[in-house]
Design a protein that fits this description.
Number of strands: 6
Distance between the termini: 8 Å
Order of helices and strands: EHHHHHEHEHEHEEH
Radius of gyration: 17 Å
Helix content: 40-55%
Oligomer: single chain
Number of helices: 9
Amino acid sequence: MKKKYLLFDNDGVLVETEPYYYEANVKALAEFGVELDFDTYMEIMARGGNAWELALNAGITKEAIDAKCERRDIYYREFISTNNIEIKGVLDVLKELSKHYEMGIVTTSRRVDFDLIHHSGHITKYMDFTLCVEEYARSKPYPDPYLAGMKKFGASKEECLVIEDSERGLSAAFNAGIECTVVANEFTATHDFSKASYKIKTLKDLVSLLEKI
């Protein structure tokens, strides 16, 4: 069935924010004397966990972790506010796709961070809606986010295509029964994408992919 609705992940697909979220976690955990190496972080993210597991395993109290989590969020907002998070070509692709498809963003980001990332509105103006982590019951890799997006469109699974860059996001789409194309991203290159329906090198390739499926 011809695709009519596109559900985009945000971080790593539309904006390059994932490295800064990792760095914010590294900085916050280091203040506990806990080291977060990249491979460990990738394993945690792939299965939908969070980096605070390492602090709990080190015997740090939940109260202390909750307070440090607030510091991590501050670091992250500083990083995304002071670094270039644009992915070249994204706006051109969205402009072209918006002529033929309805589109939405489905992200595990908090609304406060999402709104900071997209304060310019350059990307979100092409979207029919955006869904953040507060707006569905369970986060990726559970199917809830993409099922909520599909419901927003009033669409069938067959009419939708998810665009992701992480194993956790792919799992969410797969668990929802929605076809998913994975965009290559160096940051998530170690993830398992065997369940992907399609794979593309850059978001620019999505236009030609959609003409074929």
